[in-house]
What we know:
This protein is mainly α. Helices cover 80% and strands 0% of the residues.
Amino acid sequence: MKLLIDFFPIFLFFGAFKLWGIFTATAVAIAATVLQIAYLRWRHGKIEPMQWVNLGIIVLFGGATLLAHNEAFIKWKPTALYWFMGGALLLGQILFRKNLLQWLLGSQLELPTPVWRTMNWAWAAFFGCMGALNLWVAYHFDTSIWVNFKLFGGLGLMFLFALGQAFYLSRFVKEPTGTDSPKA
């Protein structure tokens, strides 16, 4: 259910684009993100920081798209979000000596510090590359191809990268050792 809620604005943006074009799709994405935040606030009582960042970026870039009637702004939105996330990972590691991935996921995964550091660098590089790739697609292809890339290409590459990370991490995740396991 959480995954559906997270991708709700993207799916609505895609559908609205196919039916009515980029400007209506942009307005729909802004409204859907506001609704998403309102629902999460009502349902869970709190909003994750990344969701606030996403809301700010969609309102800023989407609003600029609608006000200027220029689709270039909305095409920059994914890049801004990717580079913000990658930049946060880099700045946390370099300036504050804080691994944000470990801070976010440390209660769910027990990994050696060098592995956390490798993951942090890998995700920062991935977000940097995704931001650049988004701009390349946005400026070398028409808007319809960019919208398809945004949904299928972006999500597909994210899935493949996460899968690669899972394979990498599988070497380091410890099996639970419990006393209740059956003995032969």
